[in-house]
């Protein structure tokens, strides 16, 4: 097994910077998710690591060894893509065996390695079937078995679960994580699904316009986003914009918002505060809006969206729509038009410098 280090990696397509000075340390045995909007450079980064495409500048090391000039087949990387392209006329076992056959391994070795890989993805009974006789999830497992049978040092996954429906996708997430843990392989996973990134990975990197805007463990990025973009791209956030006061910001109407201690920005500079919708408490406005216990704002409910175990309230306040998520515990629901008080702690409020 091996970690992967990319350092100052840049890749231009004409004038377009698909990757712009990206540095990431993918730890040995870790599960790393790359997130970002469409066109942000996720696939381009995977292609550089795999060796399908080459950077204009920067370095890539696998297991401490520079690989910029090492061709694809010698990088010892396993890959699974959304359109996993199994060979339709070959059995499941032959599909999995393909990489070993190309390498010229002995027949007995191939048979035992294929069996092991099929056992790992729990398809040992289906080795004789053709791909069209499998479900989408089973085909995805075959693609995974095919990627790992050659004992790669690194596993690259580009939206591997993107074609599966929600229920199957959740099953496969659990399965994929189990397999990754079992073989301990360094895994780099591209996904559009932020929940998938949060639940599966040890670390997340967020790309935007070819740049790495933030990276770290899922909880750290969720709790301490460094930009409005990171705050709203990973999860939902209410963003307040104003001027720094030293302990938070002052909104244009003079209302003060207190933020978590720690961030220091020059007083009077433009800045934002981000607050997660589930961190805000909502209650009928009883008239008292003292700020002794944290942040308080008055607003009016404009609508409620029911989502089973929780509801989202949309609250209008000084031309801004705020979102508040509450668990559906059976308490009285608030109706549209209701005047409310929103309260939340400074600890739940992240101060962000203006972009
Ligand atoms: N071979 C190429 N020639 C020209 N432009 C390219 C090429 N490959 C990628 N690009 C451009 O580089 C940018 C990054 O593309 P990339 O496929 O890495 O994005 P992505 O983050 O994987 O997007 P998606 O989530 O849509 O798959 C895009 O603007 C894309 O159009």
UniProtKB/TrEMBL annotation:
Catalysed reaction, written as an equation: ATP + H2O + polyamine-[polyamine-binding protein]Side 1 = ADP + phosphate + polyamineSide 2 + [polyamine-binding protein]Side 1
Gene Ontology BP annotations: putrescine transport
EC identifiers of the protein: 7.6.2.11
Alphabetized UniProt keyword annotations: ATP-binding, Cell membrane, Membrane, Nucleotide-binding, Translocase, Transport
Alphabetical list of SMART domains matching this protein: AAA (SM00382)
One annotated Gene Ontology cellular component of this protein: ATP-binding cassette (ABC) transporter complex
Pfam family, one: TOBE_2
Signal peptide: none
Key word Membrane present: yes
Domain ABC transporter: residue ranges: 4-234
Gene Ontology MF terms: ABC-type polyamine transporter activity; ATP binding; ATP hydrolysis activity
Family: Belongs to the ABC transporter superfamily. Spermidine/putrescine importer (TC 3.A.1.11.1) family.
Subunit structure comment from the entry: The complex is composed of two ATP-binding proteins (PotA), two transmembrane proteins (PotB and PotC) and a solute-binding protein (PotD).
Protein function: Part of the ABC transporter complex PotABCD involved in spermidine/putrescine import. Responsible for energy coupling to the transport system.
Protein name from the UniProt record: Spermidine/putrescine import ATP-binding protein PotA
This protein's encoding gene: potA
């Amino acid at each position: 097994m091996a970690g992967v280090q990319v350092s100052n990696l840049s890749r231009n397509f004409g004038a377009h910077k698909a990757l712009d000075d990206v540095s990431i340390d993918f730890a040995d045995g870790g599960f790393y998710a790359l997130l970002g909007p469409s066109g942000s450079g996720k696939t381009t980064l995977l292609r550089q690591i795999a060796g399908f495409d080459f950077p204009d500048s920067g370095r890539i090391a696998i297991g401490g060894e520079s690989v910029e000039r090492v061709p694809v087949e010698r990088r010892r990387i396993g890959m699974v893509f959304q359109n996993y392209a199994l060979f339709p006329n070959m059995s499941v076992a032959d599909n999995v065996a393909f990489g070993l056959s190309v390498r010229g391994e002995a027949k007995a070795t191939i048979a035992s390695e294929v069996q092991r890989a099929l056992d790992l993805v729990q398809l040992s009974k289906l080795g004789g079937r053709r791909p069209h006789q499998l479900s989408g999830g089973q085909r995805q497992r075959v693609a995974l078995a095919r990627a790992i049978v050659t004992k790669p040092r690194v596993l690259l996954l580009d939206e591997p679960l993107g074609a599966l429906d929600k229920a199957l996708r959740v099953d496969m997430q659990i399965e994929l994580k189990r397999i990754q843990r079992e073989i301990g392989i360094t895994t780099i996973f591209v996904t559009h699904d932020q929940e998938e990134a949060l639940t599966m990975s040890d670390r997340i990197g967020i790309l935007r316009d070819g740049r790495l805007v933030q990276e770290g463990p899922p909880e750290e990025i969720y709790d301490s986003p460094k930009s409005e973009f990171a705050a709203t791209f990973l999860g939902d956030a209410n963003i307040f914009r104003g001027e720094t006061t030293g302990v938070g910001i002052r909104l244009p109407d003079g209302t003060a918002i207190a933020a978590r201690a720690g961030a220091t920005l020059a007083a009077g500079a433009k800045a934002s505060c981000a607050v997660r919708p589930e961190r805000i408490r909502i209650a009928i406005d009883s008239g008292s809006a003292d700020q002794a216990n944290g942040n308080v704002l008055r607003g009016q409910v404009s609508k409620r969206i029911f989502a089973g175990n929780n509801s989202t309230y949309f609250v209008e306040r000084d031309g801004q729509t705020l979102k508040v998520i509450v668990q559906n515990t059976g308490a009285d629901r608030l109706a549209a038009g209701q005047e409310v008080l929103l309260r939340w702690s400074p600890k739940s409020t992240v101060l962000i410098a203006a972009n």
